[in-house]
Specification:
By secondary structure, the protein is an all-beta fold. It is built from no helices and 11 strands. The chain is elongated and about 45 Å long.
Length: about 120
């Protein structure tokens, strides 16, 4: 198993910033892709941003220009810097990782989620 633990969510006013972290642990050979997703109340989970092992990033339109995804390869940790937050960014944010486990082979894991609430 590969465990993902998110942190950094909270309550912030519109226009403010938050930084999320996601630490991966387990017998990982490699993590090929990491990403952030979110689920707002009453809506389906949606992509926020992803980053490959090579550093290629991809952002959903709502995140472009405001959010920055990055990762620390030495710590197997994923980050999401969110600036100029809007009330519509309110959601539970989930971390996802895909890669190769030393024993299990290919894996896909999700974190438990962290709540981000943006007040107007």
């Amino acid at each position: 198993q590969v465990q993902l633990v998110e942190s950094g969510g909270g309550l912030v006013q519109a226009g403010g910033s938050l930084s999320l972290s996601c630490a991966a642990s387990g017998s990982v050979v490699s993590i090929e892709l990491m990403g952030w997703y979110r689920r707002a109340l009453g809506k389906q989970r949606e992509l926020v941003a992803t980053i490959t092992r090579g550093g290629t990033t991809n952002y959903a339109d709502p995140a472009k220009g405001r959010f920055t995804i990055s990762r620390d390869y030495t710590k197997n940790t994923l980050y999401l810097q969110m600036n100029n937050l809007k009330p519509e960014d309110t959601a539970v944010y989930y971390c996802k990782a895909e890669g190769v486990h030393r024993v299990l082979g290919a894996f896909q894991s999700w974190g438990q989620g962290t709540q981000v609430t943006v007040s107007s």
